[in-house]
Amino acid sequence: MASVSPAGDLVLADGTVLRLAGLAGGGAGTEVGWRPELARRVAGRDITFAAGPARDRYGRRAALARREGEAGTLQQVLLAEGLALARPEQAFLGCLPSWLEAEASARREKRGIWRALPLDARNIAALRAQQGRFTIVAGHILDVGKTSRVHYLNFGRVWPQDMTGRVETEGRAALEARGLDVAKLAGRWVWLRGTVFEAGGPAITLRRAEQIELAFDQAKDPPDGNRTGHGAAGRKRPMGDE
To answer: What is the pTM of this model?
Structure first.
């Protein structure tokens, strides 16, 4: 049996701490939204898990976990309730399709955190409020800028203050392996999944192809008809190094 820490981790009877792999919604030392539901689910129940030996800086092991006798993982339960977001994690990418499927039901029905997601790429104040947190951003890529090392997915005309997606070598290779040419993403409606940080304006770095979803055909309006009004000829980033 297990208890649940304030950070939403499973604490086993022997003191082992398991971080539920592939979930986002908080971090060590913070109260996460899924904690009450997870605690209810595991109370008095035996837990089976699969975890690697490595521990993070908080002493936790990343794990897949489920209640004894059940096929679905606790990750799927929390995602379906809209209490967490699926986060692409290298060692668990094989599980991501099932997690996204579970997440999709909450997304369609606007359950839990999906009542406020995705964030509009034009809402800079809302994005900055998420700095350091994993979230989902939706918007129209006006253009794609490029330096010697980085491609920039520009969501606004003024790149030092508007939302940007950063695609470096690792991310570019991952996208190309999925048949996506970064340079041809201009004009596309997309959803980005990642941690927001400040880089002049809010930004998300794309390291994996799973972090971007082509949400709408570039020739069509999104479902709410909510275009940026800027067209696809946004201000280009200067060429050269960063």
So the answer is: 0.84
